[in-house]
Automatic annotation (TrEMBL):
Function: Succinyl-CoA synthetase functions in the citric acid cycle (TCA), coupling the hydrolysis of succinyl-CoA to the synthesis of either ATP or GTP and thus represents the only step of substrate-level phosphorylation in the TCA. The beta subunit provides nucleotide specificity of the enzyme and binds the substrate succinate, while the binding sites for coenzyme A and phosphate are found in the alpha subunit.
Span of domain ATP-grasp: 9-241
Lineage: Bacteria, Pseudomonadati, Pseudomonadota, Alphaproteobacteria, Hyphomicrobiales
Cofactor note: Binds 1 Mg(2+) ion per subunit.
Residues reported to bind substrate: N274, G331, I332, M333
GO BP annotations, alphabetical order: succinyl-CoA metabolic process; tricarboxylic acid cycle
Protein name from the UniProt record: Succinate--CoA ligase [ADP-forming] subunit beta
Species the sequence originates in: Xanthobacter tagetidis
InterPro entries: ATP-grasp, ATP-grasp_succ-CoA_synth-type, ATP_grasp_subdomain_1, SUCC_ACL_C, Succ_CoA_ligase-like_bsu, Succinyl-CoA_synth-like
Binding sites annotated in the UniProt record for ATP: K46, G53, R54, G55, E109, A112, E117
Amino acid sequence: MNIHEYQAKEILRAYGAPVTRGLAAFSSQEAETAAQTLGGIAFVVKAQIHAGGRGKGTFKELPAGAKGGVRVVRTPADVKASAAEMLGHTLVTLQTGPSGKQVGRLYVEEGASIDKEFYLSMLVDRASSRVAFVVSTEGGMDIEEVAHSSPEKIVTFSVDPATGIQPLHGRKVAQALGLSGDLGKQAVTLTASLFEAFTQTDMSLLEINPLVVTKDGRLVCLDAKVSFDSNALFRHPDVAQLRDESEEDAKEIEASRYDLSYIALDGTIGCMVNGAGLAMATMDIIKLYGMEPANFLDVGGGATKEKVTAAFKIITADPNVEGILVNIFGGIMRCDVIAEGVIAAVRQVGLTVPLVVRLAGTNVEEGKKIIRESGLNVIPADDLDDAAQKIVAAVKKEAA
Ligand code: GDP
Ligand code: MN
């Protein structure tokens, strides 16, 4: 689960990490009031969307040349004016994709005068089974680009869970960023605070880009992107309530209500599969035969008829879907339950695109019989290869 920058900074602040003072605002009036409350001679108005690259982003509704989603301004009146330009408008950044994201919230911060911009992130490194740090002097820019063009400027290390965070880790960060003296000490403290925040709240990613040195010699987290491990959210009700459903795909929200592992994708073949590995293989083979999957969907092992029905409805509700491939290898999952779920969903929502069903395993004969006797226009398939070819052919035929 992702959260907004202002929420992430509140968590970091609670763990003692240095962030600038700021207030969230939902209207231009609130933004102006926030600036008056903060006081000072410079403010930053920041669009709150679940995507980075806001500074260099552009608003769809504003004329070319208008400023982006991160603006440094001088007075509360300027804050209000910028807020009015951003709220309700669509911000397009490298990370949002061309459709962009509508801005519904802002964060108003006191302006910082920046001396240097660095990069620091933390993530769960699956290879070492540890929390890893990624640090670079090249902050404020696209880290993928740095990794590509000058990989030597990126320093990574991980923390042994047996020892936890140690001053030596902080010194590694300081060294990587060329910080000594008081700034070096600040880096050590910051590293420990970030590690505490990360592990205590079960984050899966924490990215500070940029981490800055201000002209008055302070190390400050100027941006913060945080993702949490959704499987650990039950331990953190306070974190769970930070969820902003308006930032998420409506189909994914619906799927999460039924405890379905569903990820929306850009292709045209809707997939309903049991087991994550089989779902991945199904997506691969659709691509092999020249089309793209519209989603990843693992209905899980012991799915009920209701769950299968819900899954099928989510797939058919996607306007991009031109064909559906159901691929079930029944182990714990029974083929007759799948068949009943599919039939029930089709009866409720209709079927306007070709549907290929491949069933194998437990109760396969019952499953096939249910589908055969339903009178529905379902194309049966025997194996994965056959199924993928059949759905691709059927979609092409419809298009022709
Ligand atoms: P992103 O573009 O979505 O990653 O948003 P950031 O929060 O990283 O802001 C983008 C850039 O705006 C930063 O890299 C800074 O260069 C600049 N910026 C952000 N806050 C301030 C500030 O307080 N003062 C100044 N001078 N620049 C800022
Ligand atoms: Mn940033």
